[in-house]
Amino acid sequence: MIRQPTILLVEPRHYDVSYSINPWMDPMRWAADPRGLHRQAAEAFAALHAALQRIGFAIEVAPGEPGLPDMVFPANAAVVLDGRALLARFRYPQRQGEEAAFARIFAGLQARGLLDAVDTLPPGCFQEGAGDCIWDAHRGHFWAGFGPRSSRQAAGRVGAHFGQEVVALELATEQSYHLDVCFCPLAGGEVLYYPSALTDAALAEVRRRVPAHQRIEASADDLRHFSVNAVNLHDRIVMARTTPQLREALSRRGYRVHEVDLSPFMLSGGGAYCMTLRLDRASTMQALPARNDIMPARAADAEAA
Ligand code: ARG
């Protein structure tokens, strides 16, 4: 497996919004200006690629396929941990063709030594990849969303496959149809999340496991900006254009936010995190540099204390 922070992106040549499987998707708006939006999508993709590279990621870009516009959201393609990829099973027929397309992409990554193993889930449950199964490196477990897309029983199957704890959280709204729309664990142990997207039981579970000082509550406005759908590496965060409140809250905690205009992808219900898939996630902390190397501001605080 690879140790260097590495992200998989899928280039947006075949991206469009031609169907609607979540409440953000707006095929009419796309149809009003397909050429203009396609050009804007290419620019937004290039800006995201550049921002991710700037904060320290190596990037792998895979090709998309005609007729599979949502391949630009590889977060849904698989769950990856310790060099092992577990391929997704999509709920909607519109995205099911991606399973074979991504299986080919992952076989290529394995052939090049970027992955050690590629496996599939037993049939009978839906699981939409890292979009609904987020590794919390600080706590050493997965958080799994279920309801609108992934099945409740997927959490147990992913846990058994990787030999890791999976904390299942039921999603309460169609607007947060994947967990990554409303939930984002950060490197320093904070969790950025939108409470109303979770059922009461899920919310209680989050509050039981994450102490109050580590909980950052996003607003409805932050959710609309796809600000919770963020990519974090050490003290850097890449996200779509956000709100002044959230930018300020994150900066107070020592995070530097890099904003990218992702509006053409938000028309499909996606932000920065969904457009990425981490290939280097490791269950052991040793894979990361020591904390004082990666968070100079925080290390200085700790020394002063
Ligand atoms: N149009 C895509 C869908 O509805 C967007 C997926 C965004 N991915 C995510 N992980 N939130 O499936």
From TrEMBL:
Pathway involvement of the protein, from the record: Amino-acid degradation; L-arginine degradation via ADI pathway; carbamoyl phosphate from L-arginine: step 1/2
Catalytic reactions on record: L-arginine + H2O = L-citrulline + NH4(+)
Keyword Hydrolase: yes
Segments crossing the lipid bilayer: none
Keywords: Hydrolase
SUPFAM superfamilies assigned: Pentein
Gene3D superfamilies reported for this sequence: L-arginine/glycine Amidinotransferase, Chain A
EC category: hydrolase
Protein name as it appears in the record: arginine deiminase
Organism listed in the record: Cupriavidus gilardii J11
